């Protein structure tokens, strides 16, 4: 395997990781922002108010996007296995 192939392989893995984690992180960030605005407006400073909605939103996002995420991971794994002889060389 040449250095450029190793870089391409690593680059694809990093891009896939970012692609799979971005929706969950964006939902958690958006819910956190909305909860912070709600707390600022109502002056309620309850700690559980920040965690419970984030957990529910992240779980709902994972449930909704899990099939897409699994398909992406399976496609990437299949690509790695098919190209394994070229990688080992």
The arrangement of helices and strands along the chain is: HHH
The Cα radius of gyration reads 19 Å
Number of strands: 0
Largest sheet: none
Number of helices: 3
> Averaging pLDDT over every residue, what do you get?
93
**Which oligomeric state applies?**
single chain
Structural class: mainly alpha
Uncertain stretches of 5 or more adjacent residues: none
Dominant shape: elongated
The portion of residues forming beta strands comes to: under 5%
Task: From the structure above, extract its key features.
89 residues; mainly alpha; elongated
What do you see in this structure?
The protein has helices at about 5-40, 50-80, 85-89. The chain starts with a helix and ends with a helix. Helix 1 runs antiparallel to helix 2 (about 50-80). The mean pLDDT is about 95. The chain has one domain. The protein is about 90% helix and about 0% strand. The chain contains three helices and no strands. It is an all-alpha fold.
